[in-house]
Amino acid sequence: MLKVLVVDDEPPARARMGQLLADCAQQIELSLLGQADGGLAALEAAGRLQPDVVLLDIAMPDMNGIEVARHLAQMPEPPAIIFVTAYDEHALQAFEVRALDYLMKPVRQDRLLAALQRAQRLVPREPRLEDLAHSLGSARTQLSVSERGRLVLVPIGDVVYLRAELKYVTIRTVAREHLTEESLSALESEFGDRFVRIHRNALVARRYIGGFERIKSRGASDRDSVDGHWEVLLRGLQERLPVSRRQWAAVKAAAGL
User: Fold this and answer.
1) Number of domains in the chain
2) Stretch 8-21: mean pLDDT, rounded?
3) pTM score of the predicted model
4) CATH of the domain at 54
5) Lowest model confidence (mean pLDDT) among 107-111, 135-139, 214-218
6) Closest Cα to residue 162, out of 141, 129, 191?
7) Angle, CA of 191, 47 and 59, to the nearest 5°
8) Within a domain: 116
9) What is the pLDDT of residue 224?
10) Does the pLDDT value for residue 65 go beyond 50?
């Protein structure tokens, strides 16, 4: 039984998709678990209902479908994604090159049936979703982390720093810490315009850099300009982070010093 969740911010589109799914159910075993009217509602519903397939609109006011899909990909058992789109031909080529399925509005029953059959063969967590997101210039506005069995969204604008520790990356906001299994290098690739690398294991948000302080080694004289290191002062936190000697020139330039 293929369990399906429909996501679209337009009620008529959701109603039509429900009818099309009812017609497809005569040829493929499926169940419509529910419907969501936006990206945030979709993430909540997916976590609660655990669908096999999400029929996902792209153009939604609260969160676009590409970002929703990237959050869904972080679920322990992520669903297959079928995008529903009104994108032009250039964007459709991007979908086809990466073998992710899509449906053009208005959706036809035969096309929906073929997409559902194809969804059964999609492998969860494939890198094609990341390739697609980069090709469309779609950086996330939030990071998703799993905490106590539920998906938590952390606005990227609230992140003070990202620090790699063992197998996890710590996401630090002024309020608290979160942990993610995403790699620091992947996060830097996606959000490099917002962060500056201060160490091989740490990225700091440019907007939260409050200044720098030179920390001299114990016993070093005032004339010793080599000994010691620099630390970043963080807005909203008492905590400080060390800047590696290798990164100091780049950090100084990024801070306009």
Assistant:
1) 2
2) 96
3) 0.70
4) 3.40.50.2300
5) 135-139
6) 191
7) 55
8) yes
9) 45
10) yes
Give CA–CA dist 239/191, Å, rounded. 22
Instruction: Tell whether 96 is covered by a domain.
Output: yes
pLDDT at residue 97, as a whole number: 35
Residue 55 placed within a domain: yes
- Do both 124 and 160 map to the same domain? no
Domain that holds residue 43: 2-135
- Top-confidence residue, 226 or 188: 188
Q: Which residues contact 194 (CB under 8 A, 6 or more apart)?
A: 156, 205, 206, 207
In a domain, 99, yes or no: yes
Residue 21: predicted pLDDT: 97
Are 12 and 102 part of one and the same domain? yes
DSSP characters for the chain? -EEEEEE-S-HHHHHHHHHHHHHHTTTS-EEEEEEESSHHHHHHHHHHH--SEEEEES--SSS-HHHHHHHHTTSSSPPEEEEEE---HHHHHHHHHTT--EEESSPPHHHHHHHHHHHTTPPTT-THHHHHHHHTT---SEEEEEETTEEEEEEGGGEEEEEEETTEEEEEESS-EEEE-S-HHHHHHHHTTTEEEEETTEEEEGGGEEEEEEEPPTT--TT-SSSSEEEEEETT-S-EEEEPHHHHHHHHHHTT-
Q: Which residue has the tokens 């969860």?
A: 124
* Across 191-219, average pLDDT: 90
Residue whose structure tokens are 């306009």: 256
- Answer yes or no: do 128 and 14 share one domain: yes
Query: 222 burial class (0-12, 13-18, 19+ CB within 10 angstroms)?
Result: exposed
Whole-Å CA distances, 56 to 38, 215, 245: 9, 52, 46
Average pLDDT over residues 232-240: 95
Structure-block tokens of residue 220: 């070093």
